[in-house]
Amino acid sequence: MPPPGNLFIVAAPSGAGKSSLVSALLQSDSQVRLSISHTTRQARPGEASGREYHFAARETFEAMIAAGDFLEHANVYGNLYGTSKSWIGETLSSGLDVILEIDWQGARQVRRLFADCVGIYILPPSLEVLEQRLRDRGQDNPEVIATRLAAAREDMGHLSEFDYVIINNDFQEALADLCAIFRAARLTREKQQARLAVLIHKLLKKV
In Å, what is the CA distance from 102 to each residue of 14, 107, 109, 179, 194? Predict the structure, then answer.
């Protein structure tokens, strides 16, 4: 039976490029699965339920909270987001790694249950670049962008709660850094001893 997979948290202020980096990682690494969050926010153009998010009515979401269905949940910009507890457990038990794209609030909740999870924070190279990226999306009006920038400053104040920090200035360099963290987590002594138990036994066996 394979050792349990690693649980990774990837967080960032809105517009830092987190989703693009995670998407590129998933395309290059077959051992990683992305947790698809439940949310009460409305789907954006091109989004589909079960792909980007599991979209749910607020009443349904609150019932799931009451039933204890979420590993973590948080209120972000007035919308609720949550991570399925059962799916995470089943996927990790199968030996696959899991990525949670959540904010610092959710990360705190997850860390209480998974003390050995790996926290990664994505930073923009500057606030000016962050603002331009938000404008380039063409999804939000100036008032919403101003709100997101203010929230980004508060969000980045929780940087010290994460294990690794990546600056997303050059995309390919940031992606290489992200991939390196995932690879290193699989090569710890504990993981390798469980994965290579037979080989290690043979190597240490006295002739």
Answer: 11, 7, 11, 18, 29
CB-CB contact of 168 with 14 (8 Å) = no
Q: Which two tokens stand for residue 90?
A: 């089943």
Which region, left, alpha or beta, applies to residue 134 given φ > 0 means left and ψ of -120 to 50 means alpha?
alpha
For residue range 133-183, what is the model confidence (pLDDT) as tens digits? 888 876 778 888 888 888 888 889 999 999 999 999 999 999 999 999 999
Q: What is the DSSP letter of 130?
A: H
Tell me which H or E stretch contains 100.
strand 97-101
pLDDT tens figures, 64-99: 999 999 999 988 878 999 999 989 999 999 999 999
From 3.40.50.300, 3.10.129.10, 3.30.450.150, 1.10.3720.10, which CATH number describes the 7-204 domain?
A: 3.40.50.300
CA proximity to 117, closest of 187, 177, 185, 168: 185
Q: Could you identify the residue written with the tokens 């990546």?
A: 166
Least Cα distance to 34 among 73, 105, 91 occurs for 91
Partners of 166 in the beta sheet?
A: 122
Q: How many residues does the chain have?
A: 207
